[in-house]
Write a structure and sequence with these properties.
The structure holds two protein chains of two kinds. Chain A is α+β, with helices and mostly antiparallel strands. Chain A has 13 helices and 13 strands. Chain A is 53% helix and 14% strand. Chain B is 33% helix and 23% strand. Classes of the chains: A alpha+beta, B alpha/beta.
């Protein structure tokens, strides 16, 4: 029977007191762990999906909405823009632009977005095909690994798209031709894992066929450009040139500058917003704005978590202090039997530390478990994957901090135990 | 073996309690009788090394432990002195045998389960080893209380009012047990009490007044 075992027995002797202290401590630490994990993984996800994109050009509306829709695929498009208006930015001769990737959005399949684009889109996210081949012809699609897993799709699978981003059968397109899965992307941890990618004309086909079928499409309604009926011929990615279709529409362009510190490049968004019917938004600026907005809420929750941790520290103090009054005679007996004052100090300190260690370990487990639950929900709603078993360096500091709280909470009772007056206690 | 000389103690610096000189041989016994307020508990605490006298010496096994510093005194007490307190208190979070093991460990000895079990058997508590001390009857608690004082094989056993609250039958049992266990570990025994029934049992006694 050493001090550690005795501390443990003392704690478990009154299980209700122990449970109360542990629950409070674990809740505080759990909440802080959860916030740390969400914050870290959200930022990591956001950063990964920035994909070195310097500018997003789309229809006028909310710039943040445009960024969230076209880069993170978690909001609706602000509208469409004509290829004619977008031509200066799509042209390979633009001296400021290294890469301009067109996106056509508006459709989905069972909740997963279909993106009409070209192969440069995959270069942005460094997406690689793990199975099958790259999309080439109309109605060919490549799907993200999450799409394949969740919908049970494999190479050769066929499906029809739905208008909008919700899984709604009433919004199904009736164009008579199904998309065919040609390839599946390797897991990249980016938004591509959750996307269905095809060429731009495929999206036009779907909507033209629909317009022919007199369904109204207010998000990506595309008109046949003169003398060019897309529904009757095929566009392979390699021979398709978007600039040949000035009357068509796309949703946005993802732009990488040749030099993003160039003054002209930096003033391009302002010029576009001022002088064109288009809107340009800088992802870094908009995401910082979003962080600021979210930050207020996160700070409030963090302060709440710290308050819970503080209360739990006080609960450990009260629990030890009350137990001390109850065990006054026991401590005096221990002194009589040869325990030094320091041993009594260490005994009480150990009790506080044991509570803190168990409380923080349970709390961290709760934090990771909560992330798992949140991750499932976020994966469905926000196209983000969260890793439950990713551990942060900050968690080590959190553990150390919880030990400090446990120590501080036990300090006063430990000092009282240290000062146990044997004669007075035994005489009373 | 034990010599107390010129002992006095003062609680507030004004009222001083003085004690007569006395001597106890190896394995000898002493009865200290006195009414309430005569300083019985103070003497027991002085002899137990719980408090130190302002004046005088207490020499046990050739060492004046009343002059020792706190840490040395803790060690000396744990090794050489066993105390049977009037009320039987134990560490409630651990069971009967662990209470005894812990006392052995605190005294710096190795835990000796064979010795512990042999004494537990002797006092009829072997079937209670794994039980919580809360579950023991008053009689069992008193036996364990005595057992705890001898478990470290001390040179001196002090007992504070061990029989005051007992009827004659139980008084005999407790005294017999104290006698047996003290002899078992070859210790000297000093009983501090106001119980006059014990007068007849002791040849060597002092009275406080």
């Amino acid at each position: 029977m050493n001090l550690l075992k005795l501390s443990w027995r003392n704690i478990t002797y009154k299980p209700l007191n122990m449970a109360l202290s542990l629950i409070l401590f674990a809740l505080g630490i759990g909440l802080i762990t959860f916030l740390l994990l969400v914050n870290d993984q959200l930022k990591e996800n956001f950063d990964k999906n920035l994909a070195e994109i310097d500018l997003v050009i789309g229809a006028k509306g909310s710039p943040l909405q445009m960024i969230l829709c076209n880069m993170y695929h978690i909001d609706n498009p602000t509208g469409n823009i004509s290829v004619k208006d977008a031509r200066p930015f799509l042209s390979p001769r633009n001296p400021l632009i290294k890469s301009a990737v067109p996106l056509s959005l508006g459709d989905s399949h069972k909740g997963f977005r279909i993106v009409g684009t070209n192969h440069k889109f995959l270069e942005l996210y460094k997406a690689e095909i793990s199975e099958g081949e790259l999309f080439e012809n109309d109605y060919d699609v490549n799907i993200g690994v999450t799409v394949a897993k969740d919908l049970g799709l494999s190479i050769g699978s066929k499906f029809e798209s739905t208008h909008g981003f919700m899984d709604d059968e009433d919004m199904g397109h009736d164009h008579g031709q199904a998309f065919v899965v040609k390839g599946i992307f390797a897991q990249s941890g980016t938004v591509v894992d959750h996307l269905i990618v095809t060429n731009t004309p495929s999206i036009w086909h779907v909507h033209h066929s629909e317009n022919d079928g007199s369904k109204n499409d207010d998000v990506t309604s595309q008109d046949n450009h003169s003398g060019h009926d897309h529904s009757h011929h095929d566009h392979s990615v390699s021979n398709f040139n978007l600039l040949d279709h000035p009357e068509e529409e796309i949703t946005s362009i993802l732009v990488q500058f040749k030099n993003n510190k160039n003054f002209q490049a930096l003033s391009l968004p302002r010029n576009i917003n001022k002088n064109t019917p288009l809107q340009a938004a800088t992802p870094a600026i908009e995401m910082n704005r979003l962080y600021d907005l979210i930050g207020v809420g996160v700070d409030t929750i963090r302060q709440l978590a710290l308050l819970i941790a503080l209360v739990s520290g006080i609960s450990i103090f009260i629990s030890l202090y009350n137990a001390l009054r109850d065990r006054k005679y026991e401590l005096a007996l221990m002194r009589v039997n040869g325990a030094s004052p320091f041993k009594l100090f260490a005994l009480i300190l150990l009790e506080g530390l044991i509570l803190a260690v168990i409380g923080s370990l349970i709390g961290m487990a709760i934090g990771h478990f909560a992330l798992g639950l949140f991750g499932d929900m976020a994966s469905e709603r926000y196209n983000y994957s969260f890793t439950v078993f990713k551990f942060l360096k900050a968690e080590i500091w959190l553990f150390v901090a919880s030990l400090v709280i446990g120590t501080i909470a036990a300090l006063v009772p430990a000092v009282i135990a240290y000062k146990t007056e044997i004669h007075k206690t035994l005489s009373s | 073996m034990l010599n107390a000389k010129d002992l006095s103690y003062s609680y507030d610096g004004k009222t001083t309690i003085g004690f007569p000189d006395f001597h106890v041989d190896q394995s000898g016994t002493l009865l200290v009788l006195g009414d309430s307020g005569t300083g019985k508990t103070t003497l027991l605490h002085l002899l137990g090394g719980i408090i130190s006298p302002q004046k005088g010496k207490i020499i046990l096994k050739g060492e004046d432990f009343s002059a020792l510093r706190e840490s040395a005194l803790d060690k000396f007490r744990a090794e050489h002195i066993g105390i049977v307190f009037q009320e039987a208190h134990f560490i409630r979070s651990i069971n009967v045998i662990d209470n005894l093991r812990f006392v052995q460990r605190l005294s710096g000895d190795k835990v000796d389960d064979i010795f512990i079990n042999s004494l537990l058997e002797k006092v009829g508590l072997l079937h209670r080893t794994k039980h919580s001390t809360n579950k023991l009857s008053q009689g069992e608690k008193q036996r364990l209380n005595i057992l705890r004082a001898v478990i470290t094989k001390p040179s001196l056993i002090l007992a504070d009012e061990p029989t005051s609250a007992l009827d004659d039958t139980n008084c005999d049992k407790v005294m017999s047990l104290l006698d047996t266990l003290t002899k078992e570990v070859k210790a000297s025994l000093i009983i501090v009490t106001h119980d006059n029934r014990l007068k007849e049992r002791f040849d060597h006694k002092i009275e406080l007044s």
